[in-house]
Design goal:
With 246 residues, the chain is α/β, with parallel strands linked by helices. Helices cover 62% and strands 11% of the residues.
């Protein structure tokens, strides 16, 4: 599960770079350990110690041709790895990619651990206000928001946010829809909310779906695909204003 999260995060290229660094480090020590072991006719443990000493410049310079060549190649390989490591660290830290990646991973992990939670699809005005009300009631919420800037703002408000398209099955799975209790289709497009409902109920047939719509023509279609209640914000607002007129 965690490997999938690490590779699915928005800045997953960082995971690839770290993997490359680890692979090169293992290769470096394997090369030195096995090389010294064969050339100097020593056991692998001694070869490993000689490798570390050579990389630390603590081992005396070899006088024989083959051990000396081995030591020199090990230092060259080590220097290349050091340069690659420093460059990678510089890129990740100073470009802010590492922080963004870790933030993304943290939210994906939080969502994967959620159970009987409410998934709010769409972090716009309606979704944001609803999430704020639910948060005040200590409800467990996962928001799916496609726009990256909006997702960042929601995260600053301490919401668990999946930055992705709610119509995508993988995104819904990242929100752990299989264990969710309620899904709120708060996307402004009625057509998208219909598709979202169909996808959600396919992944979790027992999930309760609530939706918004800006078009009366979509209300019946939404209910036909399994939405329990449909709210039309503009009409609800107009009715509220009408009730205040005497």
């Amino acid at each position: 599960m965690y490997k999938k999260i690490l590779t699915h995060a928005r800045y997953h290229s960082i995971y690839d770079k770290v993997q490359k660094l680890l692979f090169m480090l293992i290769l470096l020590f394997a090369y030195g350990t096995i090389g010294f072991s064969l050339i100097k006719q020593v056991d692998l443990q001694t070869g490993f110690v000689l490798t570390i000493e050579s990389l630390e410049f603590a081992h005396r310079t070899e006088t024989m041709l083959l051990p000396r060549a081995m030591q020199a190649s090990l230092l060259i390989f080590g220097s290349v790895l050091l340069w690659f490591t420093l460059w990678t660290i510089f890129e990740l830290i100073f470009k802010g990619h590492l922080r963004k990646y870790l933030t993304e991973v943290m939210h994906l992990i939080k969502a994967s651990r959620s159970k009987d939670h409410i998934i709010v699809c769409g972090g716009g005005r309606v979704g944001h206000f609803l999430a704020t009300l639910l948060k005040a009631k200590n409800k467990q919420i996962v928001i799916i928001e496609k726009d990256h800037a909006t997702a960042i703002k929601l995260r600053h408000e301490k919401f668990t946010v999946i930055n992705g398209d709610a119509l995508n099955e993988d995104t819904l799975k990242e929100a752990n829809i299989e264990k969710a209790a309620i899904l709120v289709a708060a996307i402004s497009s009625g057509e998208k909310n219909i598709l979202l409902t169909l996808t959600a109920r396919q992944l979790n047939p027992s999930i309760e779906v609530l939706a918004r719509s800006d078009d009366e023509n979509h209300v019946k279609k939404l209910k036909n695909v399994g939405v329990r209640s449909v709210i039309m914000p503009e009409i609800a607002g107009a009715k509220e204003l009408f009730s205040l007129i005497k």
